[in-house]
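Listing S7. Sequence submitted for prediction.
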Amino acid sequence: MDAAEALDEIASLLERELASSYKSKAYRRAAEIVRGIPSDELAARIADGRLRRTPGIGDSTYTVIVDAAAGRVPDKLATLREEAGGGHRTGLAATLRGDLHSHSEWSDGTTSIQAMARGAAAVGLEWVVLSDHSPSLRVANGLSAERLAEQLEIVEALNADADLGIRILPGIEVDILEDGSLDQTPEMLERLDVVVASVHSKLRAPERDMTRRMLRAIADPHTNVLGHCTGRLVKGSRGTRPQSSFDAAAVFAACAEHDVAVEINSRPEREDPPDELIAQAFAAGCRFSIDSDAHAPGHFAFLELGAARAERAGIPADRIVTTWDVDRLLEWSHRKR
């Protein structure tokens, strides 16, 4: 099998397990080193010891490369595949065609835009929104208007590559500021295909203040998705965090009125919104977006978790914008502007 593909798959499976990013990065770094090296040249480097002495190739990655070059499935990959199960999407998960919420190394993701696109394509998606953070979220290296404009040029160039295998849609996860305004210039928001608006600060604000804040953001004509609406954390390395307090009836009524999708965030440490709020949003007539909130290519596998929650809630596929083809998605996302 191809050594670079084996290394990439190991990295993705480690990311799916939320393993240390240092481990997955080591495999991705090794994949980039050997990617494109012809098989005979790779065999020569293994035989004469050059590969073993190559910076960025450690004991574990070297073993994987040697096994793959010899036509064997590396033991590490076989073990991780077995632990992950079949990996084939079924049920509602199989109807997902895109993802509106993902991050690259431009903000707080771990890999390049291209690597994220490959990860989305690997789970069968047809399109993916690149939604790096906005400037006020400095801890996540949020993008200024200038950096975002630069990123748009890179996305355009990547989409011109017929071999990419997936379409990247320019977007943003824009912070909802304390007054409810969106943390990016209107001019830049106009240039994007999808805007996910999320609260990341003052999560323990009084219910009335949080409700007012969210309602203003939902009413903004640029907002397409209300991201991880409670901000809660239920487990994981960052610990736990209770959900924010807001008037859910008012917020979901506004989402339905302004045709803003409520995100079902698929990250296992979030499970946001909780089941009872998903049911309330469904009853209010909201659309939904099942998103991975991926910060690494392997995180796109989390979509199965979000889809399972939506399926249990009885949400039909047509109410979920991430089941749509790209033309319908773009017609919806640009409709209000």
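Caption to Listing S7: primary sequence and predicted structure tokens for the chain studied. Strands lie at 98-99, 127-130, 167-175, 194-198, 225-226, 261-265, 288-291. Residues 145-159 form the longest helix (15 residues).
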